[in-house]
Amino acid sequence: MKKPATTQVPVADIIANRWSGRAYDAAKAISRQQIISLLEAARWAPSCFGDQPWRFIVWDRNHDAGAWQQAFECLVEGNQSWVRNAPVLLLVTANTLFDHNGKENRWGSYDAGAAAENLCLQAEELGLMAHQMGGFDTKKTREVFAIPEQFQLMAMISVGYAADVSTLSGDILERETAPRARKALGDIFFDGAWAKPVA
């Protein structure tokens, strides 16, 4: 199912077609080469001082079902209801300290977000679907996977092949089939001064 963005002017297809679907095909695995391709896209995101503050954990159910299950159990129940069919989960973290000098990196989360978006766009390029989620237990995730305190846990991402929306039901199906919407350009982009609409 495609849900291209409705834009005022054309944007690149890969951006217009990227969306956070929930219907995953449980029967289709992602190859290791595809996973590496996703990670390469994230690796080449821009970052302050080129410090690459992001660290990702990859859980591939077909490679290590036990670790995938541990990650799955860190998700909130609402996300578990549809993520169960996604073959790959990832955790995006951001280093709060610069690698090159050990000082505070207040841009780490910004840079990690850029890496995550690169990954999601690469998923679209590969014919996959990626969905970023904030609904997970950060404390449990940190404990289960022994993540150092200096790393901020940002989001989990599910990745897989899209399935027919008929695999979903109830509220999740409604959300999956609802039209995509965004705030108007002028509400969030300003021209030369705060709250002065750019368009």
Note the topology:
Layout: H1 13-17, H2 32-43, E1 54-60, H3 65-72, H4 77-83, E2 88-95, H5 108-125, E3 129-133, H6 138-144, E4 151-160, H7 170-177, H8 185-188
Antiparallel strand pairs: 1-2, 2-4, 3-4
Question: Can you tell me about this structure?
Answer:
- This protein is an alpha+beta fold.
- The chain has helices spanning 13-17, 32-43, 65-72, 77-83, 108-125, 138-144, 170-177, 185-188, and strands at 54-60, 88-95, 129-133, 151-160.
- A four-stranded antiparallel β-sheet has the order 1-2-4-3.
- The longest helix has 18 residues, at 108-125.
- The chain is globular.
- The model has no long low-confidence stretch (mean pLDDT 96).
DSSP, total strands: 4
Structural class given helices, strands, pairing?
A: alpha+beta
Shape: globular
Question: Quaternary state, please?
Answer: single chain
Strand residue percentage? 15-25%
**Global mean pLDDT:** 96
Rg value: 18 Å
Helix content: 25-40%
